[in-house]
Design brief:
With about 950 residues, the chain is an alpha/beta fold. The protein has 30 helices and 23 strands. It is globular, with a radius of gyration of 41 Å. Strand 21, helix 28 and strand 22 form a beta-alpha-beta unit.
Length: about 950
């Protein structure tokens, strides 16, 4: 069996009572008693998480040492020593003495490994023994926190196991000689001590100085309480590190706050002196110097500077007492630890959703900005036309005036011009007394209202042009602001996502150890390759992923990888390989677990199906490869001939699918006989903002994730080849399938003008070459629209994920657009194609009573009935619907054989209570399990249903995973 780490145990622990905690902390670090229950629980949670990380770090470094060089092994031992030391210190300060003692013993083992062994010739058995010690420490930590460090037989057994490991190391590598006696009170300041004093003390000193500077007469008791906690932290640290001199420096703080006549002035003056003394003592210890004292215990400690050399010691004058002013304290040392806060997960989810909405509204702004720029361009074109019209008016008038002057014998008032002047009278200025009649028309311009109208048109055009220029400037500013908003939004999205995501390594770091143990137990040589360990996944997916990955690795190890001699006989290397890869694609996290073993034999699955009575031999022969693979996930189904510790019970793959359903994930199989098997897991991202290519098909907009588009082509109809009835495209020296996108989509909305023309009949065909884990596929579309950033929104429960559809997105204009799941599309069969591969198809087994159970769904809501039917059908149940209690009762009386009834309460004609009463009073139906599914969550309705004989009570909105988990238990009832 694979030893599973106690992560789930360590992450859900709370202290059971304040009294138990106070009792266990009575002798250690009494400052914790001043905290309330929430603070204590938070501290315990932090210790639990930190211990879990340190234990995982030790295990990871031990496994890495097998293949590391000498330098890597030395670094690994150093890190393991530090991890064990940290667990020891934290456990001691929190009162978990068994944890501290076990970690201390393991720390001594690492010291022996560091100082008394030849790491270049490290034996595998040594690593195995140390891994057993880490396992024992895991169990001790879990037991200690569960039982408030009360010693149990298991605790004592694990402590003895670690002690035996230490004894083995002592016996094998010899006991160390006595340590050299140090000079009086001089510390060598080892590296570990430096780490603690560099990182652990500054926050405590900062708190001490903050309390001293912010103390007031009104809050003096609170300040004393806070300083008391600081004192216990310092003294506890000094005791843990065995530094009595440093504890003496902190002792005057205790005497100060215990003074009965303590005043604010005295607290601050003496407190600052103590703070300065502590800072100086810390620096001297870091420098490897001694801490010397003068005077009695009740006086403030006076830290002497280090002696230059022994010859000058007698000549050194006594040190002066330190007396810093309260108003000018020494500057605090920089705090290397960043402050942290605890945030509820639901608040982070809300924040992520708001970021998605922000991106959608930003896209709307970008669309409006584009429309504004378009309108400004249109206005400018209209202004140009208007200016040309005004200019033409003036030119036409001037032309007519000049032509009339030339043809009118010098009489400028005759001919055509006279007619225009009649229609457009001359403009006369009443204030002018000068007569211009003696000027010729060429010597003095004369203006009519026609000229004035033309001038006004031109001036209006100029005014509009100026306004258009301002609009253009505003549009440019709008564009710059939108670009800035885009950058800020992207940074915000990235930061918010970092709050909820963790590295994929958190889900797989325990697998190398598990695989190593299996190799030693079953004499196989298997390597584990982890690809994409830094891929970010939502932290909420970790628990749902751990068990499936363990089961898939066990499955690959037992069913897939052959024995070394078998592999060599068929030309394979003796060492098998299991590869786990994580990556993001198209708004999903895709995890692939692949092995290079013998693959899955479909004929073995066919025989098992017939043997278990799941189908007749004729039906089994009709099943496709994908349908056969789907049976592997059925409860109780296994291809193993014998039950062993690793396989044969038909539980593993069922757990994989069940766990993934809780997080709306999917899994499918791809196997090649003799080559290996791959399990592909798809998980929706919490929030995915990705680039997509917008296309049009059947007059509907569709979004295709851009990272799945290998190439965009425009081909001629003559470039389309045919293999049987399947169109093919010659692409990069091979033929790939060419299909219409609308043929792959089972969910479409036909436009008001009917379906669009067949893309394959066009002279120039837009084609997308799509790439996925299933291979390559060429898809013909009606039209390419363009690239756009979209927010991927998965379909919410209880809606099931349609095949070929990843989710949806909202465009800037408010329209909802479907996002394609390229992996589903590439592997999806075509009804009219005999050569298309088959993937993910649901087995259609004849609905006989000897096969899947039949469930009666009774609800007056058509939508609820359909949702339940879809969910149950996907889970391989047969479903019969009834619109109310009377309809259900008639079906039962007519001979309907069902294994379970799911019944609503409030329905017309006959409600759920009446139907339940009738079923329980009729002998034929009395034994049929009944689960009530209703929106009534009150205790009165629940009690009534249970009194009438209901087996289970669910409330709407229901949890799909809980309902599917309860149904098998109800059917077996």
């Amino acid at each position: 069996m694979i030893p599973v780490p106690c992560n789930c145990q360590l992450s859900t622990i709370r202290l059971r009572s304040r009294q138990a905690l106070n009792c266990q902390l009575s002798t250690v670090n009494c400052q914790l008693l001043y905290m309330d229950d929430d603070d204590l629980n938070e501290l315990i949670d932090a210790f639990t998480a930190e211990t879990q990380e340190f234990l995982q770090s030790m295990e990871t470094h031990l496994l890495a040492m097998e293949g590391a060089d000498l330098k890597g092994r030395q670094a690994g031992v150093k890190e393991m020593f530090r991890a064990a030391h940290s667990i020891k210190g934290a456990g001691s300060m929190l009162g978990f003495q068994d944890v501290s003692a076990a970690a201390h013993t393991l720390e001594d083992c690492f010291v022996i490994l560091r100082d008394r062994t030849d790491l270049s010739a490290l034996e595998p058995v040594t690593i195995t023994v140390l891994l057993q010690g880490v396992d024992a420490l895991k169990k001790i930590a879990a037991e200690a926190i569960h039982h408030s460090d009360v010693s149990t037989p298991d605790q004592r057994s694990n402590l003895e196991a670690i002690a035996q490991i230490h004894a083995q190391f002592e016996a094998k590598y010899g006991k160390p000689g006595p340590p050299p006696v140090p000079a009086a009170s001089r510390s060598a300041a080892p590296e570990t001590l430096k780490l603690i004093f560099e990182h652990e003390l500054p926050p405590i000193f900062n708190r001490l100085e903050t309390e001293l500077s912010q103390a007031s007469e009104a809050d003096l008791p609170k300040s004393v309480t806070a300083l008391n906690q600081v004192y216990y932290q310092l003294s506890g640290l000094a005791g843990m590190l065995q530094l009595p001199d440093f504890g003496k420096v902190a002792e005057p703080l205790r005497d100060l706050i215990d003074s009965p006549d303590l005043t604010l002035q005295r607290l601050q003056s003496e407190g600052w002196a103590i703070a300065q003394s502590l800072q100086t003592a810390r620096q001297q210890l870091l420098d490897g110097r001694a801490i010397l004292f003068e005077g009695c215990a009740n006086e403030l400690p006076q830290i002497s500077p280090p002696p230059p050399n022994e010859s000058q010691t007698s000549e050194t004058s006594p040190p002066l007492p330190l007396s810093p002013s309260p108003l000018s304290p020494s500057p605090p040392l920089p705090n290397p630890q960043r402050p942290t806060i605890r945030v509820d997960l639901e608040r982070l989810t809300e924040l992520v959703n708001l970021v998605g909405e922000l991106v959608i509204n930003r896209t709307n702004l970008e669309l409006q900005e584009s429309e504004l720029r378009g309108e400004v361009k249109r206005i400018r074109r209209s202004i140009v036309d208007l200016n040309q019209f005004g200019g033409q008016l003036r030119e036409e008038y001037d032309r007519l005036s000049f032509a009339d002057w030339r043809g009118g014998n010098g009489n400028s008032g005759l001919g055509k011009l006279a007619g225009y002047e009649t229609e457009f009278p001359l403009i006369v200025n009443d204030k002018s007394s000068i007569d211009h009649s003696h000027f010729d028309i060429l010597e003095m311009d004369r203006y009519t209202e026609f000229h004035s109208t033309a001038a006004e048109v031109i001036e209006t055009a100029e005014a509009i042009s100026q306004s258009a220029t301002k609009l253009d400037t505003l549009a440019m500013k709008f564009e710059r602001s939108t670009d800035q908003l885009r950058r800020i939004t992207e940074q915000l999205r990235s930061r918010v996502m970092q709050l909820r995501v963790v590295s994929f390594s958190r889900a797989v770091d325990h697998l190398p150890r598990a695989l190593r143990d299996m190799c030693l137990t079953y004499d196989k040589d298997v390597n584990l390759l982890l690809v994409g360990r830094d891929t970010k996944i939502d932290e909420s997916l970790l628990d749902a992923l751990r068990d499936p990955l363990v089961h898939l690795v066990r499955n690959a190890f037992d069913h897939g990888i052959e024995m070394p001699e078998v592999r060599q006989a068929i030309g394979k290397p003796a060492s098998g390989q299991i590869e786990i890869e994580a990556r993001h694609q198209g708004g999903q996290t895709i995890i692939t677990v692949a092995d290079d073993g013998k693959g899955i034999d479909p004929e073995i699955i066919r025989r098992k199906i017939v043997k278990k009575g799941l189908a007749t031999e004729e039906q089994a022969q009709e099943f496709s490869i994908a349908e056969l693979y789907d049976f592997l996930f059925w409860p109780g189904f296994s291809t193993a001939e014998e039950v062993s510790d690793l396989s044969g019970r038909g539980v593993g793959l069922d757990v994989v699918r069940t766990n993934l359903r809780t997080v709306r994930g999917t899994v499918k199989v791809d196997s090649r006989l003799g080559k290996g098997t791959s399990f592909i897991i798809k998980l929706p991202l919490l929030l995915s903002i990705t680039e997509a290519l917008m296309v049009k098909t059947d007059r509907n907009k569709i979004a295709v994730p851009l990272d799945a588009v290998e190439e965009i082509l425009h081909i001629k109809a003559s470039e389309v080849h045919t293999a049987g009835n399947q169109p093919m495209l010659w692409w990069r020296d091979e033929f790939i399938r060419l299909v219409r996108l609308q043929d792959l989509l089972e969910y479409s909305v036909v436009g008001p003008d009917g379906p669009s023309p067949d893309p394959l009949t066009q002279d120039h065909i837009p084609v997308l070459v799509l790439a996925s884990t299933e291979g390559m596929l060429a898809v013909a579309v009606e039209r390419l629209i363009g690239q756009q950033e979209i927010v991927v929104k998965p379909l919410p429960p209880p809606l099931s994920k349609p095949r070929g559809v990843l989710g949806s997105t909202i465009l800037g204009d408010g329209k909802v657009v479907t996002i394609l799941d390229v992996d589903d599309l590439v592997g999806q069969p075509l009804s009219n194609s005999s050569i298309a591969p088959v993937s993910g198809k649901v087995p259609q087994v004849a609905p006989t009573s000897s096969q899947s159970p039949q469930i009666l769904v009774v609800d007056d809501s058509y939508t609820i009935r359909q949702l339940l039917s879809l969910m149950l059908t996907r889970a391989r149940y047969r479903v019969v619907q009834a619109k109310d209690g009377l309809d259900a009762l008639e079906k039962l009386q007519n001979g309907l054989d069902c294994s379970l009834a799911i019944v609503d309460i409030e329905m017309p004609r006959m409600d759920g209570f009446e139907l339940l009463r009738s079923m329980r009073s009729t002998q034929r139906f009395a034994k049929i399990p009944v689960a009530m599914l209703t929106s009534r969550s009150g205790e009165k309705h629940r009690q009534m249903a249970m009194e009438l004989g209901a087996n289970q009570y669910f409330t709407k909105p229901y949890s799909e995973s809980q309902l599917l988990e309860a149904i098998p238990k109800l059917i077996k009832h």
